[in-house]
Design a protein that fits this description.
homodimer, 4 strands, 4-alpha-hydroxytetrahydrobiopterin dehydratase activity (chains A, B), Pterin_deHydtase (chains A, B), lyase (chains A, B), EC 4.2.1.96 (chains A, B)
Chain lengths: 99, 99
């Protein structure tokens, strides 16, 4: 279905994410971001918008929520690391977080 | 707004939850449960139903989701431990998990 991100793709698609609040997870080929919202309704609303895209693209985040905070980790279990599906979903989540 | 669960309340309202898949969190006066669903849509559907009640009751879970698994921790930060709002929300979540 997909392949691990190539070195070239890491430069072109991963780096912009790392400059936008995403960070590599220690010890895993995965990326992580913490989103903060105004309140629970905004936080869960964001999760709901993301959930629909995640299901549509059949690529699901590992995520947690405590009140207005949402923590997200993305990786592709089938390739045991980051694939283009992660960078695509990360970009979508960043857009959805903006409204 | 609420008080820490009394010893009596722990017998009457907490024990039934501990017999229904909830467990005390080590080192915290909090309860935890892992819910497993058929797939992501069922898991996130459950979270959505819970989110509406959590907001309505102004009492929110700490929770995480990975595909079809939802992990929930409940505690009342304002009383630094379990209150009746946790046992009430736990019972509601168990009902919502059943459909």
């Amino acid at each position: 279905m997909s392949e691990k991100l190539s070195d070239t793709a890491r430069k072109t698609t991963l780096e912009p994410l790392l400059e936008n609040g995403w960070a590599m997870v220690e010890g895993r080929d995965a990326i992580h971001k913490t989103y903060e919202f105004e309140n629970f309704v905004e936080a869960f609303g964001f999760m709901t918008r993301c959930a629909i895209w995640a299901e549509k693209w059949d690529h699901h985040p590992e995520w947690s929520n405590v009140y207005k905070t949402v923590e997200v980790t993305l990786t592709s279990h089938d390739v045991d690391g980051l694939s283009s599906r992660d960078t695509k979903l990360a970009r979508k989540m960043d857009k959805l977080a903006d409204g």
